[in-house]
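re: ur question from yesterday

yeah so i grabbed the chain u mentioned. its 133 aa long if i counted rite. heres the sequnce exactly as i have it in my notes:
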Amino acid sequence: MAYRRILPFNRFGLFGLETIGAKVENNALIFEFENHPYVNAPFNGLLLIHFKSPVPATTTATMPVYFETSGLAGSRRAVTKAGGVPMTAADITIPSYNLFFYDFSTGVLEGIAGVQPDAPVTVAQRTVTQSNK
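ran it thru and got these structure tokens back, copy pasting raw so excuse formatting
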């Protein structure tokens, strides 16, 4: 009989982080977070992310999204959607709360679902609005 290895995840509960900034660098949208205890920790599980930082006016809808811990070299992680497809700025709504799954062993950070408050403004809509001014 074959046994499947069960990986422990969310051993200490569901972690929540919120963005402290957003920047455009090398044609990518990078959301920044304060230094936190989960960086470089052997963590597998769900993360709740609060996107509250305004994005730069130079953001375009097709830019890939990355997460980075402020002031910590090597902490940048690419964000994907289901099937490993890169998440783009068009997939993020500001403000919103989004659920992600992180697998430390593979480095995969995958978006699962998002909840937006009333009358959300997507990055693409904000970019168009700002460019029309």
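noticed a couple things. The CA atoms of residues 59 and 106 lie 28 Å apart. also Helices lie at 123-131.
anyway ttyl
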